[in-house]
Amino acid sequence: MLKRRSRTALRITSLVALLIPALGASSCSHSGSVSVAARVPIETVMQAVQDYGRGHLALPAPAAPSADAESNEAYRADVSLLLAEENFAELEKSAEQNRTERSLFVGGAWKNNDFFYAMGSPAHDGEIKDSDYKFQIRRIEKWIAAYPQSSAARIALARAYTNYADFARGDGTADTVSNSQWDLYRERAALAKDALLAAASLKERDPHWYEAMQQVAFEEGWHKQQARQLLDQAVAFEPGYYHYYREYADYLKPQWYGARGDIKTFAEEASSRLPEPESSILYFRIVSSLACNCKPEMEDLPYISLAKIRDGYNGVDRIYGYSNLNANRFAFMAVRLQAKAVAVPAFAAIQFMEPDVWGGPITYESSRAWANTP
């Protein structure tokens, strides 16, 4: 489990390397800003950010997914198995399809986002180990060697290194992290940045390049102006890739680089540029980043608009289809806002508890009992 967001881990459950998703518990540690003596001047990095999308024409929003679309869990398992088997040709094919087809899963998540999510999460048996990350990185380096012009392989390497940096830091508060842990954290974030700058020199352009750079910005503690410039360039490249907004909301959380109420202000500003129902949908996407059983997030929740998250949640469900994760997030926010009339149908829509939202069954069951008590 990583320090700032929960991630789905892939475990090897048999000798034939059958990969299945496993949910981790949410981590809510507090940390101060990390000042990194970056090996590459920030001016060079920001120039790459500006240049990456030069000449790229933003496309209309992708079509809504079909009801029988493959689940994101199954897809992540499939592409993780391709990497485990070192089937780099199929990984290249999948990455190219994601760039050209711009497909969504039911619920609206981008397939491309889950592709790189899987690349950054090593398969492991039991508790994740340092050797699991090393093995994952070696496989991706083999992919780069086999396809030296592959942008996807370098973005995958960056994702692995940002996750590996989080692993080095651990999920404790800043004062519990040793100097050697900080050194590894900074070193691996810098290696992720190097991989992205190398990808920027190649012909292929992928929307996830920006999101991977957002993770670097978080780990290196970029100034707000630079982090916002990165977001703006990302949105100009692929306006519908809402994952950018959630990454930036993560950056704005009060325990990291923002202040209380910043996420609400950002959600209102970003969503105000869009017509309905897209406006409410984006608002829900952004503020649902606060749906975590963590003290700083819960302290920020009272600032948000219940009416707008309800409209956004309903809009996602109507246009993109049902998502159990979204249902859990909506129910959690309704409980924290003490909106019992909203929480009752929200819980009724949940198929199973998402630990990433609730932290565990005790909080979930007590919240559901509160909602269903007259």
Describe it.
This protein has helices at 42-52, 72-84, 88-101, 111-119, 130-146, 151-169, 179-200, 208-220, 224-237, 243-252, 262-271, 278-287, 295-300, 306-320, 324-336, 340-348, 355-358, 361-371; strands at 9-12, 19-22, 123-124. With 374 residues, the protein is mostly helical. The chain folds into two domains: 1-27 and 36-240, Serine Threonine Protein Phosphatase 5, Tetratricopeptide repeat (Alpha Horseshoe), CATH 1.25.40; 253-374. It starts with 8 loop residues before the first strand and ends with a helix. Mean pLDDT is 88; it is low at 1-38.
Features:
Serine Threonine Protein Phosphatase 5, Tetratricopeptide repeat; 374 residues; 3-stranded mixed sheet; 59% helix; disordered N terminus; 18 helices; 2 domains; single chain; mainly alpha
CATH architecture of the largest domain: Alpha Horseshoe
CATH topology label of the largest domain: Serine Threonine Protein Phosphatase 5, Tetratricopeptide repeat
From the alpha-carbon coordinates, what is the Rg to the nearest angstrom? 20 Å
Give the helix proportion (percent range).
Answer: 55-70%
How many distinct folded domains?
2
Q: How is the topology of this model organized?
A:
Blueprint: E1 9-12, E2 19-22, H1 42-52, H2 72-84, H3 88-101, H4 111-119, E3 123-124, H5 130-146, H6 151-169, H7 179-200, H8 208-220, H9 224-237, H10 243-252, H11 262-271, H12 278-287, H13 295-300, H14 306-320, H15 324-336, H16 340-348, H17 355-358, H18 361-371
Parallel strand pairs: 1-3
Antiparallel strand pairs: 1-2
